[in-house]
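Severity: low
Component: inverse-folding endpoint
Summary: output formatting inconsistent between runs
Steps to reproduce: submit the following structure tokens with default settings.
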């Protein structure tokens, strides 16, 4: 089952929930305040970056990690 990200309109809490595809559009109860005023967010994409220049445009993971 996929993990969906939600945000609460009442308190601003962001949280995740594992749900079936058929349940994804249902508004879950906020775990922080108990409000039903929640909605699904578009997931953020994680990218890897090397160096400390702050340039986040690199999406390659070309580190020196070798596995034997």
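Observed output (run 2 of 3):
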């Amino acid at each position: 089952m996929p993990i969906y990200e939600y945000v609460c309109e009442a308190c601003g809490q962001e949280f995740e929930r594992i749900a079936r595809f058929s349940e994804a559009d249902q508004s879950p109860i906020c775990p922080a305040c108990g409000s039903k005023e929640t909605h699904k967010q578009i997931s953020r994409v994680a990218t890897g970056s090397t160096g400390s220049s702050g340039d986040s445009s690199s999406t390659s993971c070309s580190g020196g990690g070798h596995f034997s």
